[in-house]
Amino acid sequence: MKYSLPFGTFVHQHKTTFNSSPKPTSVSFTKLSTSLAYQSQSESIRKLFQKDVNMLRRMEEIGHSILDTFNVPVSKRKMGFHIPPFNSIHHLHLHVQSLPYISPIHRLKYPFVRGFGGYEKGFSWFAEIGQAIRILEKGHRVTVAPC
């Protein structure tokens, strides 16, 4: 699915894992993992500036729309970015996921680290969308170090 915007195109790809519930007549989502790729010159969240906040807000809006489609409760949603050099795909893309994670490896791959003092985020290779927006709004850059 593509979303065209004045500042670029978003491409939505997803994979969904289903798990049978104890009731044989029902099926429930155990994990929804989606990636929103923004086709632009931006290779990562580290390369964005304050002027890019509206683009991130739109990505967040599309992410919520996708999760709404699958009836994922707000409390079970996680969206964010891997921060280079801890990424394997070299274009800006937002991870859109439902919780809880099935695998403990995913908890390590997408950690949420709260900030401290005046920082929005602590030392981590993953920044949640809200953290990234607040960091950029302050005129700072999103990095692995606390920011």
From TrEMBL:
Record-linked Pfam families: DcpS_C
Protein name, entry field: HIT domain-containing protein
